[in-house]
């Protein structure tokens, strides 16, 4: 038996020093932003596709939602594998798939069904980059720094979404929507290069108890009541968040049409990009508040405030356009303010040997909400009078608030049950 320190491929846990850890966080966040270049290509250009392909609001909602359905189907397998396979390998293959799917949409999408297929495949690619990237990060940073690392990583999702909205809008304006999709594939290649160079190969941890359960056996996770509280809150959070992201450009275009000249201020895609950019500081500050004030209390306050905004915002389209934008910016802050706090809570509540499985359940149920949000929004919008009705937009946004408020209720019930069973507070 040889002696000395193990190399980077060792299965032993590695805790990085502050400088090295900060560098790793920055690099993985940067890779995440690039990997999401095609993320918002469809919702950013939704009015274009509604016009060009004659889509109903329900059909547009399905194309937006199917992206997250692809994610939901793939994530339990790909994220659970990170307990047994180096997350780096999963990340690289999935980033390549994301790029190929974006190219497929650019060259081959011709209507509802072909758009559904390519967007679903793009969602599968996200399933293999987002959570496996978080798993790679959380495996290398332990203790108090882990919560902040997770908050930066999850908050970077908003930066990636913002960049994708802006990229899609600007490229489509100059070159057309097919170029917007095609060039977004380059972001996935950049993410692959970053991770391949910086993230060294490393075997998964062999914590005691890892092999007590079979692959894709999530029963231990469902028995972890404290973790499940955060998972259920995340599900309703994503219902609202991705409903908002999928339909905000279309809503802003509708509001602009009620105010001649409003489109000359800023394009709807640029405003949506700014809204999503607010998610980065909102998510990080939300997690900092959770650390200081209590995680459950902070999440409950933010989700309740966001539900209230949802019930009001959709009815504001006829207000002066600057007022609509200002209210949208405030709403965007509440929509994302609980994101990092919820995910950090789920990771902290997970057993170390079940972290990958817990994150798989977290993502699977969470992104089932992400799938349902855009679809239900479009269905309610059609049912309430269609995209030309001011009241219909109000009812559609309010439907998101009605689902969101179930999150803090579920968190409270699971937390109370966990305390009765003697689980420790994460």
In short:
With 426 residues, the protein is mostly helical.
Task: Provide an overview of this structure.
The protein is mainly α. The chain has a single domain (18-205, 218-420), classed as Up-down Bundle (Growth Hormone, Chain: A), CATH 1.20.1250. The chain contains 19 helices and no strands. The chain has helices spanning 18-35, 41-44, 46-53, 57-80, 87-108, 112-127, 130-140, 144-175, 177-198, 219-223, 225-257, 268-277, 279-293, 295-313, 321-336, 339-349, 355-383, 390-404, 406-420.
Write the layout of secondary structure elements.
Elements: H1 18-35, H2 41-44, H3 46-53, H4 57-80, H5 87-108, H6 112-127, H7 130-140, H8 144-175, H9 177-198, H10 219-223, H11 225-257, H12 268-277, H13 279-293, H14 295-313, H15 321-336, H16 339-349, H17 355-383, H18 390-404, H19 406-420
Helix pairs in contact: 1-7, 1-8, 1-9, 4-6, 4-17, 5-6, 5-7, 5-9, 7-8, 8-9, 8-12, 8-13, 8-16, 11-12, 11-15, 11-16, 11-17, 11-18, 11-19, 12-15, 13-14, 13-15, 13-16, 14-15, 14-18, 14-19, 17-18
Features:
globular; single chain; disordered N terminus; 426 residues; mainly alpha; Growth Hormone, Chain: A
State the major sheet: none
Globular, elongated, flat, extended or rod-shaped: what is the shape? globular
**CATH top level class name:** Mainly Alpha
C-alpha Rg (nearest Å): 21 Å
* CATH topology value: Growth Hormone, Chain: A
Extract low-pLDDT stretches: 1-17
- Per CATH, the superfamily is MFS general substrate transporter like domains
Helix-strand topology string: HHHHHHHHHHHHHHHHHHH
Helix share bin: over 70%
Number of strands: 0
């Amino acid at each position: 038996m040889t002696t000395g320190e193990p190399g980077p491929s060792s299965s032993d846990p590695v805790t990085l020093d502050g400088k090295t850890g900060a560098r790793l966080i920055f690099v993985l966040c940067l890779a995440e932003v690039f990997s999401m270049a095609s993320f918002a290509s469809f919702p950013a250009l939704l009015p274009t596709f509604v016009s060009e392909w004659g889509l109903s609001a329900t059909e547009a909602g399905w194309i937006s939602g199917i992206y997250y359905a692809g994610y939901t189907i793939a994530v339990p397998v790909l994220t659970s594998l990170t307990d047994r396979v180096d997350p780096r390998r999963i990340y690289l293959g999935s980033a390549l798939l994301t790029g190929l799917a974006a190219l497929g949409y650019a060259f081959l999408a011709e209507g509802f069904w072909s758009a559904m297929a390519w967007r679903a495949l793009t969602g599968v690619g996200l399933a293999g980059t987002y959570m496996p990237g978080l798993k790679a990060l959380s495996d290398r940073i332990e203790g108090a720094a882990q919560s902040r690392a997770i908050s930066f990583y999850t908050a970077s999702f908003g930066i990636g979404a913002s960049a994708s909205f802006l990229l899609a809008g600007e490229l489509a304006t100059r070159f057309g929507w097919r170029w917007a999709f095609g060039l977004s594939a380059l972001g996935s290649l950049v993410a692959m290069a970053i991770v391949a160079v910086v993230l060294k190969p490393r075997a998964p941890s062999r914590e005691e108890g890892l092999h007590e359960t079979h692959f894709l056996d999530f029963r231990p996770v469902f028995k972890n009541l404290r973790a499940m509280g955060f998972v259920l809150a995340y599900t309703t959070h994503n219902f609202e968040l991705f409903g908002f992201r999928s339909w905000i450009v279309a809503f802003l275009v509708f509001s602009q049409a009620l105010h001649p000249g409003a489109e000359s201020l800023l394009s709807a895609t640029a405003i949506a990009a700014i809204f999503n950019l607010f998610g980065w500081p909102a998510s990080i500050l939300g997690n900092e508040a959770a650390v200081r004030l209590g995680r459950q209390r902070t999440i409950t306050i933010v989700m309740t405030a966001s539900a209230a905004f949802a019930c009001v915002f959709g009815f504001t389209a006829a207000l002066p356009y600057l007022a609509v934008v200002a209210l949208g910016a405030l709403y965007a802050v509440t929509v994302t303010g609980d994101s990092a706090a919820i995910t950090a809570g789920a990771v902290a509540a997970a057993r170390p040997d079940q972290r990958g499985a817990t994150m798989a359940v977290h993502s699977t149920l969470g992104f089932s909400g992400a799938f349902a949000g855009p679809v239900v929004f479009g269905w309610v919008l059609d049912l309430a009078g269609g995209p030309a009705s001011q009241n219909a937009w109000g009812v559609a946004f309010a439907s998101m608030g009605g689902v969101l408020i179930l999150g803090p209720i579920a968190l409270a019930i699971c937390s109370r049950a966990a305390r009765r069973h003697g689980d420790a507070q994460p």
